[in-house]
Amino acid sequence: xxxxxxxxxxxxxxxxxxxxxxxxxxxxxxxxxxxxxxxxxxxxxxxxxxxxxxxxxxxxxxxxxxxxxxxxxxxxxxxxxxxxxxxxxxxxxxxxxxxxxxxxxxxxxxxxxxxxxxxxxxxxxxxxxxxxxxxxxxxxxxxxxxxxxxxxxxxxxxxxxxxxxxxxxxxxxxxxxxxxxxxxxxxxxxxxxxxxxxxxxxxxxxxxxxxxxxxxxxxxxxxxxxxxxxxxxxxxxxxxxxxxxxxxxxxxxxxxxxxxxxxxxxxxxxxxxxxxxxxxxxxxxxxxxxxxxxxxxxxxxxxxxxxxxxxxxxxxxxxxxxxxxxxxxxxxxxxxxxxxxxxxxxxxxxxxxxxxxxxxxxxxxxxxxxxxxxxxxxxxxxxxxxxxxxxxxxxxxxxxxxxxxxxxxxxxxxxxxxxxxxxxxxxxxxxxxxxxxxxxxxxxxxxxxxxxxxxxxxxxxxxxxxxxxxxxxxxxxxxxxxxxxxxxxxxxxxxxxxxxxxxxxxxxxxxxxxxxxxxxxxxxxxxxxxxxxxxxxxxxxxxxxxxxxxxxxxxxxxxxxxxxxxxxxxxxxxxxxxxxxxxxxxxxxxxxxxxxxxxxxxxxxxxxxxxxxxxxxxxxxxxxxxxxxxxxxxxxxxxxxxxxxxxxxxxxxxxxxxxxxxxxxxxxxxxxxxxxxxxxxxxxxxxxxxxxxxxxxxxxxxxxxxxxxxxxxxxxxxxxxxxxxxxxxxxxxxxxxxxxxxxxxxxxxxxxxxxxxxxxxxxxxxxxxxxxxxxxxxxxxxxxxxxxxxxxxxxxxxxxxxxxxxxxxxxxxxxxxxxxxxxxxxxxxxxxxxxxxxxxxxxxxxxxxxxxxxxxxxxxxxxxxxxxxxxxxxxxxxxx
Length: 880
Prior knowledge:
With 880 residues, the chain is α+β, with helices and mostly antiparallel strands. The protein starts with a helix and ends with a helix. The protein is globular and about 110 Å long.
């Protein structure tokens, strides 16, 4: 029996033998694609290739792609554990042709792999094709032994695939296997009639042969392509002849680990539902966190949090009350680390992130479940079969219960949930905030590529030179190709070569000037298109013309300072790993001429000593004068040499490796100094939290550090002059002043206490009876809110039984305090209600407890008027 690892490897080797290039799985975080939440299909990383925006050094490819379908258009979260075949995380095996072979070879390869390599019984295989795809039917009859009666035609919903509303599309053909009557849902079970497990879809072949425009018109593509996808877990269940994906060797080790933790056996019926949810969800959590996603309250991080908290809650169903999900990471890594080595590198940090999230949810889950049970009990008492959306939102807002978790609890109680009401409450909270995943581009890439004729990628000469001469390939103004541009116009320019670095990998784009014979362009932005061409955007001075020769000059000072900061981030990354631990991984960066910003994974704030030690290590590496060497090599070789690959970056088969002596080695396409000593000096100026589990360091290098020291020196000298002491005596002088200030504050408090006692004594003489209640109303002088409250305490203690109303002008506003003795609160007098009416006279509001309340008024000029009406307000409260 073949294992999941063997099936994966056999698939990839088969297509390698058919001339395909084996391409590594891309990250679960799509590269520069705001339309996708997660990578959910093998073709995602080739999207720009299919669209003609990117060219690869191969025209056939094969992959084993890690995928997540949870959130967004493709969301299997609700069905996980209920069926035998749905997952939030799965592996998609695929073979791709970019304008090379088409239907004939795609069908032949698929049939041969399944029947010969996998040994699946030919008589149990069924084929579906698009309703009018006669060509596909003929090719299946030619290349396989499938009889015509087992080739089924279905409509657009089932057998037509499109990348979007417009763009490449085409019919598809699915391969199904009949698993036998024991998997049937009934006597009328059949392909296109039901969605049970008898006729199981195992492979989808997509024939991209048309381009659909906005009007729905489809024209044939000049180079039709192939995109196929087969779920590893599904085909493993078929090959291993087990009932569900959860019984395959891919999943069973995780299921066994869950059994060991909870001490209960796994059942294949609905009693095993929690086991299946946990086993699926720990795979998603492990892979997502390894690829840089961290729990948060928005976007990808919120989906991860939903998945993780849902699993924690099902752990409670199994009787697991202690944090346990982090313990399963080792099992996942042991099972999957051979195919995905990044798991081995990130195992420790993944477990730490999950443990922190478990601890965080542990504090609220019991209270949340208790509230959910109260809501369910109340719904039943009221004869309702649905829980209101606002109540579900309260569980989310107060206890961090994602909608899915509340839905599971409700379903177990036989109740539905008002999803629309929940979404409406969420929308009100978001206040129509923009979707954080979508970023505005300076220009429409697809439109720009459309405007440009086909051309080679721009050669970047900026590693070795800051100037070059080139003829403009294209001049674009207002999204249109033009022959000339004039003073004050913004243009886009494309050249066959450029010294300008396009923004990438956290390094900002170069600035500079593109000079022609009668004018120039002040370059403000540089962007690399998916097809490798570089677009220079800038403001025209004078007049420029397409076709003339230009001099491209990068601003040398800005480039040098940017390189200084970029090289320093590599040293910083290494130093952080040495000081804080190997779990530290880059989570983002920004390097420009003025500063560097480095985001990294770490659970807590750095201590002062850690901060200083990181600084010392970076400066030590700078002073060591390590040569900075760049090499281009195969990605596999770079990884063998221990080069660090950074989250969020897209790497090809050949990569650029930047080494700094024997200290640091990273995959990097950015520009750097030639020696660490050229950095000069490194200084951290800030460290703080970005989100849960992610910290950020801001730092300066070189001349920017000297500028900072000059500012600090000026500040120190100015303070020394103010204190009238030498700089070295400032600390002692400031300490003396602080001690004297504490003495004065204490003396002031004592004086205010005596004054309050005197004022309260005088107030007792003005005590009046209001409806049988002793009432004191007075305007007092108070330095701040604290002293005002102290005066109130003194008045309350003096009066004993009664009501005290005080007013004061504090910080330019009217302030009020009302105190009511306990015996009077028992008679219905309420300080919070009284003060609300009193403050309203001065244009304010407030409230508080029955015995003590504070409020403010917007207009201090109305302070006396409000106090004058206080007795009338109290009299009304007495019902007189």
